[in-house]
Fold Probable dual-specificity RNA methyltransferase RlmN.
Amino acid sequence: MYKTEISSITNMSLAELEAVCASIGEPVYRAKQILSWIYNKGATDFNQMSNLPKDLRRKLAEKCQVFQTTVDTLTQTKDGTEKFLVRLPDGNEIECVLLREGKRITVCVSTQVGCAMACRFCASGMPGLERNLNAGEIVEQALHVKNHLPPDERLTNIVFMGIGEPLANYDNVIKAIRIINAKWGLGIGARRITISTVGNIRGIHRLAQEELQINLAISLHAPDDVTRSKIIPSNKKTGIKNIIAATQEYFQSTGRDISFEYILIDGMNASRQDAESLARLLKGIQCNINLLPLNPIEEFNFKPPSREAIETFCKILKKHGLIVTLRRKKGDHINAACGQLRLQSINFYGKD
C-alpha cells in the first residue's frame, strides 16, 4: 500500500495533531491554531501561519507538510462547473468537480485512483484500480475547491461521487468525512454530505452503525438484475434485492431517505417498460430518484435518450407517486463525466 514519507496535516484528526505538537515539545492548543489556518484561512504553507512562533513553524516543517497534493489542471464551462485534475505525491492523478446550483456549492470528490467496478458508462474504471486515497488526499480535494472560490461563495455540500467506489475505501472515507464534518475542520454538516455506492453491501451495513447523519445514494441504473449486470458487472455478486434490503437497514438506523441514482441510457434502461419496472421495484420505499441523461464517453457506444423519452420516463415514475428529480447535464464540454479528464491526462485514449 502506498504511504507518504512525510505526514500531511490534512490526513490528521485533531487528536493526532495534538500528539504531534506534544512530541515536539509544544502545547496541544497549538493544534487548533494550525487547523484554523488550514481550514478557515486557506493556508497551504506553515510560513503563512503568522501567529505561530518561527521555531514552531520550523519544527512542524521538519515533521509534517500542510498539503500533499497540487492542482495540475483546471477546466471550466459556461454553466459554472469547474473540474480540477489533482496530482498526488506519487505522480498519480485524480479528479474533483465544483458544481454550482444557486447558493448550493458542491464539490464532488474522488476516493480511489481508478476504480475496480468497471461500470459500462463510466471512464473511471477503464484503466482499472491503482490504489486507495488516504483521508488527507480526499480532504484536500475539498480544500482545493474551497480555496479557489471567490469571497462571495461558500462550499456547502460534499458528494463522494468521483473516481472510485467510496465504500471499498471505507476507513479512509469515514476519516475524511469526520474531518470535513468537524468544527475544527471544514465544518460541513453531515446532512450536506453524500456517499454514492454501486451497492457495496458490507460497507452499507458498516455505515449504518457509524451514527453519522450523512446521505446514502445508490447507483442503481436499472430496474432488474439482468439489465443492471450488463451496466454494472459487480451486480452479479450482489443483486438488486440485497442492495435494497441493505438500504432499508440504513434508513431504519439513520432515518435518512435513500437516493437512487439512475443514468438514462438509450436502448438500455430508458424505455416505458423500464420506468414501470423501476416504479414497481421502489414502491413503498421512502426514497428520492435522481434521473440523469448519460454524459457520453468516447470509448463507449452508449448515448442518452431523446428529450421526449426522458420526460416520459420521468412522468411514469411521478404517476406512481415517486419523488423524482431530473438532473441537468453539467460540464459535458469539459469532459466532466467521471474519469474523463484523468484518462486524457494519462493518454489513455492515445491522444497527443
In short: The domain at 7-65 is CATH 1.10.150.530 (DNA polymerase; domain 1). The CA atoms of residues 89 and 204 lie 30 Å apart.
